[in-house]
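Colleagues,

Please find the record for the two-part complex below.
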Amino acid sequence: MSRNRLFNPALLPLAVTSLLFVLTFGYGAVAYTGFLSSQVFLNLLIDNAFLVVVAIGMSLVILTGGIDLSVGSIIALVTMVSASLVEHHHWPVYVVVPLCLAIGAGFGALMGCLIHFFQLQPFIVTLGGMFLARGLCYVISIDSIEITDPAYMAIAHHKIMLWGENFISINVVIALAVVALGVFLAHYTRFGRTVYAIGGNERSAVLMGLPVGRTKILVYTFSGTCSALAGVVVTFYMLSGYGLHAQGMELDAIAAVVIGGTLLTGGVGYVAGSLVGVMILGVIQSLITFDGTLSSWWTRIAVGVLLCAFCLLQRGLEHGGKRQLAAA
Amino acid sequence: MKAETMPQPARFALPAPLQGLTRRRLFWPCATLALLLIINGAFNPNFFSITVKNGHLYGALIDILNRAAPLMLVAVGMTPVIATRGIDISVGAVVAICGAVAASLIGGTLIIQNGTPVYVSQTPMVLALLIALGAGLLCGLWNGALVAGAGMQPIVATLILMVAGRGVAQLITEGQIITVYYEPFFIIGNGFLFGLPVSLYIVAAVALLMLLLVHRTALGLFIEAVGINPVAARFAGLNARRILIMVYAFCGLCAAIAGLIVASNVKSADGNNAGLLMELDAILAVTLGGTSLAGGRFSLAGSLIGALIIQSLTYAIYSLGVPPEINMVVKSVVVLTVCLMQSDSFRATLLQHLRREPR
């Protein structure tokens, strides 16, 4: 499959994803009038900024071979905490946002510690975290809290004009900054190399003397912080706090990471791929909205089919890789 | 009156070949359940009273058993899956799909028969139920094929159906909540037989069948072997793939039956909300019952008790007057505590390099 050195099999899923994105966007451009405009493309970023932020945190977790199911609930908790503090206690934005990030980081660090020190499965620990965060939302309030704070409104409605009539929101800037940070962390730091090493083979990483425990805890802390930041983004986007916000977001994030070409067993993948993965999910959503005759549940089916196809592709690649190893 | 419900799990445990071990393994789940029942009883004096009304048994205990029925079924299905080191997070979606299939096939049309309006089923009910069960079995086989055939990680393989399944369920119901008007369908979830809810007989039948299969044949041993070391199991001549596919298919079937009970109980099918978060409750029930998520030894009776623990916990939260929203917080604390307890024994194994002692 990869006789020539120029072709890296780890890049194939990413290449397929990028091609798929171009094709689906191209299909939309041909099929629906008004689809081919730069603003439609920018809207993909605006409407999915929070998913991008979550997916970057999730990619690092998945690269270590773990999983974080608590992201959606942490988003909901953050929207709830900020809405409650801003509306009921009139705290200013510059206090609330760092506090929210601290909550997310604390949540992630706690889960990371449980996973590392007690050797619990990431799946079950983050499941517990998911329940806990979702439950805490309802402890704050069962109802949705609307945000009318002027500072929040100003940030939410601020448009950063690019060229012509095209604009992006502050959320997009945050999301792109997180992507840059994620790429930097994963590919240009010692921390990132340890993440890949743990995903490749945790035992080997320990034997090599890498700080496995610290890195694992940090990865979950990073994911928790990303979720909290995504919660802040959602608060700006929706201008409300609600315990039911971001229900099922963890699945979308995992799907985006997988479609973006990261191997679920860990160790292989590119953080930037998750951005493309999110964009594909966004394009599918826009296509279904543009079509108008398709019902919303087709989104879920399409995401499921894509997820399945990419998982099978990954399995095929793993098989190919093993055969190559055996031949060598 | 308390004695009336308690021996039930214990009776399930009896056929086990290793009685002493089983009794010890079931000690903690049983103690937790007893504690919860006592707390319930302390705050609600009428908790243990069971009265006979219209020839049916009524009471809080019967209510807990009845409401726990779908969860018990899903937990029984999930147990062998977890024993093979797998997980099935699609059960909630399968519950929704099967409820939707049954409800849309049965529906109920109003016709006038001998001058009285009667609702008749659109499809013969037995056929509709069989198709719904078949759909569940198909979902299970699909999961099994992805796990055993394609070699995907179980959580990912079942994630696909979890995401797509809700969509499929909504596709079947066309995004609506389908209401069923056909009376005989309600028997499954609301009917009584010899004073006890029909759903309990269904649970008992499925559980007994599985217990017989697991304890009277080598199947239980095979499942544990696959869970402890799949490679060794294959070298020992076991067809690990076939066992995996069977286990997932059984889980799908159990979820389908649970879906029928849920749909019949609420007399409708809701593609969006039926069986929501049920996968988590089922995993929690299995864990509470003493089956380790790391695979290997499993206890069907423990899972049944685990499901009852969750339902009693919910009941206690409601009857204590605590806002029901706290339920999730309590559950999460329970999950983490149980995990830590399991992890202690896990660490003990690592330290002593001796046989492990699951709790």
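The first strand of chain B starts at residue 50 and ends at 53.

Comments are welcome before we finalize the supplementary table.
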